[in-house]
Structure formats: C-alpha cells, structure tokens
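note to self — DONT lose this again. spent like an hour looking for the file last time. sequence + predicted structure for the chain T wanted, 228 res
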Amino acid sequence: MQKVKMMMLKKLKKLMIPCTNSLVILSVDHMLLMRLYGRSNEGIFLPSQGLPYHTDGLTCLAITSDSTLALTGSKDSSVHIVNIATGKVVGLLTSHTDSIECIGLSLSSPWAATGSMDNKLIVWDLQHSSPRCTCENEDGVTCLSWVGNSKYIAAGCVDGKVRIWDSLSKGCVRTFSGHSDAIQSLGVSYDKNFLVSGSLDWMVLSGYLRSQSSNEQNLLPLYHTKVK
C-alpha cells in the first residue's frame, strides 16, 4: 500500500496551492485534484463537467482572489477555467500554440496573463474569455509576475532575459539582461521597486524597476548557488 502511495505521489507535479477551504494539487496526468474542507461532502473532485478538459499534462495554475476559480495551463497549449466548488470547466482560453508555462492574475482588473513556449505573453479578459493583447518575446516565456497592481508584467524567458511589458499598449518598456540560461522564477518587491529572478544558471539576480536610465539594463547578482 505504501509503495502504491509513493507511485501516486511521483505522478504529481510538485505544486500545491491552498485557497479558502480547499487545497488544489496540480498533476502531470491531465488531472486537477481539489480537496475541499469544512463541507459535508468532503473529498476529491476532478474536472469532469462542462467543457472538455486538457488533453496533455498540466504545467501551472492560478487561483482567483475569491477562491472560486482555478486557471490551469497545459502542455496542450490551452488554459482552462475550472469552478473549484463544482469541478465544472466554465471557460477555455485558446490562442497559444505551444506549452503553457505560467499564469498570473492581475490585482486590479479581471485579467490574466499567460506565458508559453511559443514566445508569447498573452493578456486575457476573463469576463469574456478573450485575449486583450499579445506580447511577442524573442524566446519562450517560462515565468511571469504582475508588477503589483500596475499595468506592467515581468516575463522571464528561455534566453535569460526579463522583459517588462505594458499590458495596455503591448509595448516592451524595459529588458533586463544578466542570466546565461533560462529564467525559472520571478518576484517583485511589495513597493514595486525591485525585481528578483532565479535561473538555471544557478544565479539569483535583481534589477531596479523605477530606473529611467535606459530601456535595457543589467541585472545585479544577489546570490550564486553553484557548488564547485
């Protein structure tokens, strides 16, 4: 029995996101597992109603601030919107042509941003399940972060660069360089002054977002994890 449990755990992508009264687990076997707590029908729910679900492994997800919807991205290039309480697929976002790598929700508008290996960062209007704008990068987008509640989005790419996009004008307002390999994670400080990036090159770098010196800047080293 213990061996079976270990095999099941190995199938799960290491991403578990808590939300109100529930825990959402993302899996690589096309499934989204949702454990609902504090209810008489406590148990595991799978997306099995409404629109069809993903046809390939899941890669990322985001949960709305009211804990009602989960947005899931997949290798099949689509994003699905799932009602957490019922498991019903209530929306479908399809404009990417390659694996979805990251999803981020705006703090100020009913918008979501998605990044894909097709080099695109797409901003979506969730009320109409339609794209608002498409931002073309030079390489695949592996991670993203909205800059606080502003209109700007930071996109980390396979080419080791971070690009700052204006979600209204679709313009790239700044590019940060410094990494020599794909960026895997991004974070923005609470005061929206600093950007921090982590990469497969073993480096953690930072950049000053409010600088007006130039459109292209170098990230500065914060930490180097490589062991000789």
